[in-house]
Every structure is written in C-alpha cells, then in structure tokens.
TrEMBL record:
Protein's UniProt name: Fe2OG dioxygenase domain-containing protein
SMART domains the record matches: P4Hc
Organism phylogeny: Eukaryota, Metazoa, Ecdysozoa, Arthropoda, Hexapoda
Residue ranges constituting the Fe2OG dioxygenase domain according to the UniProt record: 206-310
Skewed-composition ranges (Basic and acidic residues): 1-25
InterPro entries per record: OGFOD3 (IPR039210), Oxoglu/Fe-dep_dioxygenase_dom (IPR005123), Pro_4_hyd_alph (IPR006620), Pro_4_hyd_alph_FE2OG_OXY (IPR044862)
Region Disordered, annotated ranges: 1-41
Entry GO MF terms: dioxygenase activity; iron ion binding; L-ascorbic acid binding; oxidoreductase activity, acting on paired donors, with incorporation or reduction of molecular oxygen
Cofactor(s) essential for the protein: L-ascorbate
Residue ranges of the TM segments: 47-64
Length: 324
C-alpha cells in the first residue's frame, strides 16, 4: 500500500491555521540554520559548531517525529467550509480513466458544517437509533443500509425490510430529509471537486453506523484499521460522511483521522465529529484514513458514497420498492 502518493500537500487559503504555523516554524528554523556561516567568526568557531549541531538535532527531531496531528475540524468550532487539497493518487486517476468527466479536477477533502440543518440531523439520528435498535451487532459496530436492507444482527446481517417495525420507520418526514441530504451532498461534492453533477451517482454501501466500545466480535466490528475506500469498495469514487452526534459530548475517541505521508513520517489530520458536520473526500490513496476506537459513549454517523459508474447507481425510492 503506497501512502507516498500525493505527499506534496498544497494547502489552500482556508487550510487550518496550524498548518501555516508549522510552515512558519520551519521557515524560522531554516533561517537560523542558514545564517550560521562557519568560518566568518573563527574565534567562536567551536561554539558555533555546537550551536549548529544542537539546532540540527532539534530540527531533525521535529521533522522525524513519527506523528504529527493537525486538527482539520474541532468539535467546538463552526466550520462553514474548509478544503484541504491533495494530489490525486495515480491509482485513482488510472481507475477513473474510463470516466473522463468524473475525474476530480482537484483531489482532497473538505469539511462543512453548513450543509445539513439541525432539524435534518435530529430526524436522521432518531431513525438510525430506532432502526439499529431493532437488531444490532454483538460487537461494537452496527450498521443499517437502507439501499440493500442490510442490518447488523449479532455476528451477521439480516434484511431490515423483512421487519415490519423497520418499514414503519421510513416515514415521509424521514425520507424527505434523507433525499434532501443525498442531493445536497452530491451537489457539494460535484462543486468542490470540480466535476459535473450529472456524472455522479449515489451508490452502495450507503449506511448508518453506530459505534460503541463493546469488544469487537467479528471483522465487521473492526472499524479502526487504516484503509483506502476505493480498495474496500470497488464502487466508491467519492466518499462523504454526515456525523449525527458529537465528539466529547456523546462519545470519546471516534475521531476520523486522515493519514498522509510515508510510514514512519506520517502527518495525521483529525476531523472531530459534530452533529450535522459533513466530511467528504476523494476515495483513492490520497485519503488513507481510519476511525479511532470509541472508548466511551456511542457514535452515530451516515456514510454516503458516490460512484461514476452509472450501472452501480441506486435510488432512494425505498418505500415503493419494498413496501408492496
Ligand atoms: C516527512 O514528510 C514531510 C512532508 O510531509 C517532508 O517534507 C519531509 O521531508 C519528510 N521527512 C523524511 C525524513 O522523509
Ligand atoms: C464503555 O463505555 C461506557 C459508557 O458508554 C463506560 O461506562 C465503560 O466504562 C466503557 N468501557 C470501557 C472498557 O472503557
Ligand atoms: C461498472 O460496473 C459494472 C457492474 O459492476 C461493471 O460490469 C462494469 O465493468 C463497470 N464499468 C467500468 C467502466 O468499470
């Protein structure tokens, strides 16, 4: 797995301040380093040499530090819109060769707190809790996918549409909110990755997830491994997440972490979930990520995926399809 692709980040204007500060620190340190010209002050040569060594060690320690974490979005801030640009990975570009109009003009990730309203989040959260509450995994991670009907039940999945109580949850109000969010996500992804909305299609899996600190029982409960969405799900080209509750308030752990750079020299970018926050990104190797283990409380989110392959498109007319 190559994490090297796209390591030359190009933060844009609205990249978080800490990125800029790191750069500034780097500049200041480089400047000090360069201003020391051995030989110009023969008397203090040894002193200067030690000084240079000390500075070099400090700089090396700083940059060789195995992990740097940058906060892309904190739970207690409002992020109207924030984009972080990445070079598209070669794998993604190669894979998308068949869909020229769907190739992002820029890859990366964005966070926005202004796409989904608090009323919409309330409706989604209420339904997700009730739906998963009808069954649920015996491990720490449960899902329900309205498109396929997959619902976690103990150590496997059952068809949620076979449960009358589940079908009753799909009220007009819920379906209205769900469809509205799907179309806002699609529009926003098209706009920010600079493609035409008509080439994007909602696809599977698109699901609600519930994560708690219960010990994992099957591989489906192990959400914390770092991965690339495109490798896990062939159909994915663009991934989006809508958080339904809030880090620190409703649960501890469970931050979403992007991992950039080579192994041993990684920069982590955390997105702290917050009710209504959208986190969207291109699904290739430019966005290796994982979710931190939830250590306390329960985390709810909605994963919405989009594909460029129209044969993999799904629609949102669940009620007409299943309630016969
Ligand atoms: C670590 O990664 C940064 C960019 O993220 C790069 O500038 C730096 O040269 C790398 N250091 C090493 C030792 O590879
Ligand atoms: C799991 O979370 C619950 C609260 O949600 C807490 O009471 C419990 O101590 C946690 N268990 C572990 C092992 O951290
Ligand atoms: C689109 O998906 C279908 C169904 O999985 C597959 O047969 C087809 O090869 C895909 N198209 C491309 C261009 O990959």
């Amino acid at each position: 797995m190559s994490r090297g692709a796209g390591k030359e980040n190009k933060p844009q204007e609205n990249t978080p301040r800490r990125v800029t500060r790191e750069k500034a620190t780097h500049k200041i340190r480089s400047h000090k380093f360069q201003s020391v010209t051995p030989g110009t002050q023969p008397k203090h040569h040894k002193l200067w040499t030690s000084f240079v060594v000390v500075i070099a060690v400090v700089v090396a320690m700083y940059f060789l530090k195995p992990e740097k974490t940058v906060n892309l979005a904190l739970h207690n801030e409002v992020v109207p819109f924030r984009f972080y640009k990445r070079h598209c990975s070669q794998q993604l570009l190669k894979e998308m060769h068949d869909y020229p109009n769907c190739i992002p003009k820029q890859c990366g990730r964005f966070v926005s707190d202004s796409l989904v309203s608090s009323e919409e989040v309330d409706i989604l959260l209420k339904t997700a809790k009730s739906a998963i509450g009808l069954a649920g995994s015996s491990g720490g991670a449960s899902i329900v996918d309205l498109h396929s009907g997959a619902l976690s039940h103990k150590d496997k999945f059952i068809n949620a549409y076979s449960i009358l109580e589940f079908r009753k949850l799909l009220t007009k109000e819920f379906l209205g909110a769900y469809k509205a969010i799907m179309s806002k996500l699609k529009e926003s992804i098209a706009k920010n990755f600079l493609i035409d909305e008509s080439v994007l299609h909602l696809t599977r899996p698109t699901f609600f997830s519930k994560i708690s600190n219960i010990t994992a029982k099957t591989v489906h409960d192990e959400y914390w491994h770092s991965h690339v969405d495109k490798e896990q799900y062939e159909s994915f080209h663009y991934t989006s997440l809508v958080y339904l509750n809030t880090y620190k308030k409703d649960f501890e752990g469970g931050r979403f972490i992007f991992i950039d750079g080579m192994e041993g020299n990684e920069t982590k970018f955390s997105v702290e979930p917050k009710a209504g926050r959208v986190n969207a990104f291109t699904s290739g190797h430019e966005n290796v990520h994982h979710i931190e283990r939830v250590v306390h409380g329960t985390r709810y989110a909605l994963t919405v995926s989009f594909t460029c392959n129209s044969t993999l498109a799904v629609d949102t007319n669940f009620a007409t399809r299943y309630n016969d």
